[in-house]
Amino acid sequence: MSPAPTDTHGTLPAPVVARVGGGRTDRPLVVLLHGRGADESTVVALGEALETALPGRAEYAAVRAPLAEGAGFAWFANRGIGRPLPESLRSTMDWFRTWADQAGERPVVLVGFSGGAAFAGGLALDDPARWTGLAVLLGTLPFDAGVTTEAGRLEGLPVLVAQGEEDRVIPAELLARTWEYLRGTSGARTTSHRDAGGHLLTAGTVRALVGWLDEVLGQDVDGSRGATSAAPAGS
């Protein structure tokens, strides 16, 4: 785990990051974003599973959200489940970009679960060219939250959207809107997975993520999508 000792963006805390396959800046970076009220420890096991399935293909970074929420943390203040406050989302996205732009000239893939999926979607919609791929797992895009969802916004971006038919946490209308947009007018190269699960990562969802990530990591590894000219630096 690699917490930075000082504040990196206004009043928000410095990022706390748990890494799997760390220290290899020659590999693509896969960022894992946890759900609301959780922390990085809840998704680092997913990074370990992905490293086992795809050994040596990437470095995985489970990042702690910056806002305290109960016993855990959140990516944004909201006005209801899956409905970020625009000013809060903007602040935390800028905070995250400050950290992510230290990754150096390598592809960065965003993998978000639940509230982390909404945050990852916001980052992708805000600057699609910055990222190599986006996985929206058991969550919604941040509609009506200050980022555009115009037609063609994610043109060519590899996206995985995974939902559970028994999910009763994310409002059904937001799940449907996310599914339709990502598979339709977004322009993304979308892979979709739906199973009988609820609001949790099922074995089927993890298999779908592994298969999708295997394809994504085989593309653009020269940094042609999602690279930044910033010098490499620690988190």
TrEMBL record:
Residues 25-187 form the Phospholipase/carboxylesterase/thioesterase domain. Keywords: Hydrolase. GO terms for molecular function: hydrolase activity. Residues 1-20 are annotated as: Disordered. The keyword Hydrolase applies. Transmembrane segments: none annotated. Pfam families: Abhydrolase_2. Belongs to the AB hydrolase superfamily. AB hydrolase 2 family. PANTHER family: LYSOPHOSPHOLIPASE-LIKE PROTEIN 1, LYSOPHOSPHOLIPASE-RELATED. This is Unannotated protein. It comes from freshwater metagenome.
